[in-house]
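Support request, please re-run this one:
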Amino acid sequence: TGLIVSPTPAGDTVIWQNGSHAPSFNVNAAGVYWYEWSNSCGVSLGIDSFVYTFTGPASPASIGRDTLLCNGSSITLSPAPLPAGAHFVWQGPGSTAADTLPNFSTSTAGLYILQVSNQCGAYADSVTITTLSSPPPFSIGVSQSLCAGYTLTLLANPLPAIGTALLWQDGVTTTDSFVVNTAGTYHLSESNVCGVTNDTVVITASQLPTVSFNPIPLQCNLDSILLIPITSGTNTYVWSSGSTQPAIYATQSGSYQLTVTDHCGSTATATVQVRMMAMPVRPFNDLSIDSCLGTHVALNAGNDGRNYLWSNGSTLQTITAIDSGLYAVTISDSGLCPVRDTVYVSFHNCAVCRVAVPGAFSPNGDGRNDVFRCFFECATDLFAIRIYDRWGEAVYESTNQADSWDGTYKNAMQPLGVYVYYIQYRNTGSTETRSLTGNVTLLR
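Re-run finished. Output below.
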């Protein structure tokens, strides 16, 4: 386009820089222009000039190519070349009417358009922004043991996304699975332009199972003993008895064998010996034996075929007691499972019959030692007993040897305390009347 300049006032004349006296000048090129005008008398009225600059329509400006942007990062879009004197309007995610600068920053995916304009025209360019994340977490399995002669396959889970690159620890394999046949550390990397995600597992060689038993000592007088093996790993169990339990009870002497099998099918076997022995039976149970002076008492320890050791040094099964005293014997099987027992032997004058009188009784109704009575070694044809309280009052009396005192007087229970008894008796066939005095304690 051009510009027509008409500076001449009415009645004046003008001369242009090119010598033209036309009242107007058609400017169609950039440059410096001037003119001088004068009146009708030829007197110069002045000179003026101007600069004409040619402005074309807005020139094409590119804001770049479609771009892939990693999540979390941003990009600044700028037109190139940068038009001078142009007006800018952006359109796209997050843009507003106020976005009129040549640069626009964003971290959001979408289509972005820049319109560049001036008074002579407008031009637009667009770019598409695509966002991408680094590969998501994945797993190639858990660390585990590998049975000898076996393989296992490690597989990425979930499967890798399209567009990612895979690389295993060997630096060669790029598939989503890897076959393992030896122990070691295995690693898979999944990567894209935005980052790398990794996972690692450790594969160990499966150890052979082991099984053993602590030594079991001799078991005396036990009906059974629990056999608990010492094992490694997770196993199945088979005992020589046919049981498949982790532990069993042994009920008799013998050899017990256990075979364990692990998840790889490997086995281990161990045997334990069990010895169970019945203890000798106590022959006396701390018995007391009373015999007449001048006699002998045979003490038989029983338990035929065992070993014996008496307190007097004898190793015989039967010894003869001729003196009063405590006799002890230890019975065993060659020193194994020993048991000790005692017997007290006493000798007395059998010409005089003896009387046994308790020192206390407890009339509390429990069925044990509830009454007071005396016991005679021989029959009597004369008997009388009288019991006094601490004030000297007779609270019980009887002439019947079979009678007993229940601790009452006139149907009332007597208080706790010490009572005095007086007994007269004569043994049948004897002419001598004997007397016996002592104390008895009433308990609850």
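Residues 388 and 394 are 4 Å apart (CA to CA). The mean pLDDT is 89.
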